[in-house]
Amino acid sequence: MASATFFYADRRDVDELLGYLGVGRGTVLRPWPLVVPDRDVARAEIHDHAHVLVVAAAMGEPVLAGEHGAALGSSGASRWLHRMIFESAQRAGVEQIVDLEASPVLFWKPGRCDEGRLVAGRIGTQADQLADLT
């Protein structure tokens, strides 16, 4: 299932969201789509990234899937979705994706709120973020 929440937020709102998500208290932010284990994104860097993976330690680390991984070899609709995401990710130079079914994570595309510009951010599933890779 693909789902997302779209929202407008200034830097103070983003800081409050990060606090609500528990960033700095067991939740970390990682770059996405190129997921690098143990490479956290600091709060001050959040707006330097087009996409961020939200990982709550209490829920576990993301499970990465490569071309020959179980996610791409599974049956049913999830296999098709994983394959589509993986092929898009490969075109972007990414060799592994986050397994949609095995990873308790959120994908965040921070919005922008600058003078004269207001762009909605969104937080949701990896499937919802697919359009940004193509």
Task: Describe this entry's structure for a reader.
The chain is built from four helices and nine strands. By secondary structure, it is of the alpha+beta class. It has one domain (4-132). The chain has a five-stranded antiparallel beta sheet with strand order 1-9-6-3-2. A hairpin with a 2-residue loop joins strand 7 (112-114) and strand 8. The mean pLDDT is 78.
Give the helix/strand layout.
Layout: E1 4-7, H1 11-21, E2 27-31, E3 52-56, E4 64-65, H2 70-73, H3 77-91, E5 97-98, E6 105-109, E7 112-114, E8 117-119, E9 121-124, H4 126-129
Antiparallel strand pairs: 1-9, 2-3, 3-6, 4-5, 6-9, 7-8
Quickly list its features.
five-stranded antiparallel sheet; 25% strand; alpha+beta; 134 residues
**Beta-strand percent range:** 15-25%
Q: Name the helicity range.
A: 25-40%
Roughly what is the average pLDDT, rounded to an integer? 78
Q: What class would the helix/strand composition place it in? A: alpha+beta
The ordered string of helix (H) and strand (E) elements is EHEEEHHEEEEEH
Low-confidence stretches: none
Number of domains: 1
Distance between the termini: 19 Å
Which term fits the overall shape?
globular
Spatial ordering of strands, largest sheet: 1-9-6-3-2
Query: Largest beta sheet, briefly?
Result: 5 strands, antiparallel
Work out the radius of gyration. Answer: 15 Å
